[in-house]
Amino acid sequence: ANINIDADLENSKFILKENVIALNAIKLAIDGWAALPDDDIIDMDLSLNSSTIKFKDILSMIPAIYQNSFEDLTATGDLKLGADIKGVMTGDYLPEFNVTLTVNNGKMAYEGLPKTIDDIKLNINATHPQGDLDMTKANASLAFSIANNPFSVSAKISTPISDLNFDAGAKGVLNLGMIKEVYPLGDSIDINGTFNADLNFKGKLSDIEKERYEKITGEGFLNITDMIYNQPGLPEVLINKFAVTVSTKSLA
């Protein structure tokens, strides 16, 4: 981090300007100000400046990608990242904030590997009006295609503190053996099998904790067939067949 601050010590106000914060390949700037009008109050108006960020920079935040042949990765896509926070923070009372990350028309390819990950679409958004953290709402979705096999996952949450309310789903087919053709796993790791899902479910965390499963609604299926995962130093995983069927009336 390289941060320049104009400090008005008489009024306990601090203005951020010409600053750079680096997280792996990401470089960000935070503009705005923060003030301390009282010992237990922070007033702020801050925004994130991310005009130079590219899709590959975001991927550097995933350790498995950043620490494994990151220099051989080519990633393209239309990216938008924005964040702002405004208002008063005191105790459990938090300011208003909004965070958004979107990627469209994304593509990933490693040098020397035969296949690519295409049609990447990512959307992450978290919002919070000024007040208790429990008022936070967030949603995320990710879609991609490997060798013309599309796959997508999504999730929405609210009331994360008092009683987590969730709505999640997954759809598509993953040929696990094809991972080696798009990501450099190395010769020592063996993985195969098929993961097939078309599943949606929603409910509240309290209903799961109190085993009121009849209040969790969902529909669809999740199947894993002929799965093998073998990595030196870890137990071998073998799954001939795993199947879950979910309906509004039962979980089998």
Structure description:
The N and C termini lie far apart (52 Å). The strands form 2 sheets. The protein has a 13-stranded antiparallel sheet with strand order 1-2-3-4-5-7-8-10-11-12-13-14-15. Strands 6-9 form a two-stranded antiparallel sheet. 7% of the residues lie in helices and 63% in strands. The chain has 252 residues and is mainly beta. It is built from 4 helices and 15 strands. Strand 2 and strand 3 form a beta hairpin.
Keywords:
252 residues; mainly beta; 13-stranded antiparallel beta sheet; two-stranded antiparallel sheet; globular
Q: What is the approximate shape?
A: globular
Q: For the terminal residues, how far apart are their CA atoms? A: 52 Å
Strand arrangement, largest sheet?
1-2-3-4-5-7-8-10-11-12-13-14-15
Elements, N to C (H/E): EEEEHHEEEEEEEEHEHEE
Explain briefly what this protein structure is.
With 252 residues, this protein is mainly β.
